[in-house]
Amino acid sequence: MVIRVYIASSSGSTAIKKKQQDVLGFLEAKKIGFEEKDIAANKENRKWMRENVPENSRPATGYPLPPQIFNESQYRGDYDAFFEARENNAVYAFLGLTASPGSKEAEVQAEQQA
Fold first, then answer.
1. Over the stretch 29-68, which tens digit does the pLDDT of each residue have?
2. CA–CA distance from 63 to each of 2, 11, 45, 55, 68 (Å)?
3. Which end of the chain is less crowded, N or C, counting CB atoms within 10 A of the terminal residue's CB?
4. Using CA atoms, how far apart are residues 95 and 30, in angstroms rounded to an integer?
5. DSSP letter at 94?
6. Counting Cβ atoms within 10 Å, is residue 65 exposed (0-12), middle (13-18) or buried (19+)?
7. H or E, element range at 68
8. Which Pfam families does the entry link to (predicted)?
9. Bridge partner list, 96
């Protein structure tokens, strides 16, 4: 399974840049493998992302903004969903991955199942 994070390398928005870096930095720190897909430099990436974000996750007007997160082709969420999962120690579940043994998330899952 490959986590794909759709980003915009040349975004003029500092908020978008910060959110992208937050997601990528977290994945790197946790050693979770991922691919960056640049929607600014590659029209195919932009088209694919726009077509594969579900209707109920799109903004009322305009296009979905990066970062958008997928596991292979399965949509996992945007920055807000990622942030909420991180705050709840549920990032692996959010990404559709199994938490590493001994991780905080694995401990939380074990407690919930007990």
1. 999 999 999 999 999 999 999 999 999 999 999 999 999 9
2. 24, 14, 14, 11, 11
3. C
4. 13
5. H
6. buried
7. strand 68-71
8. SH3BGR (PF04908)
9. none
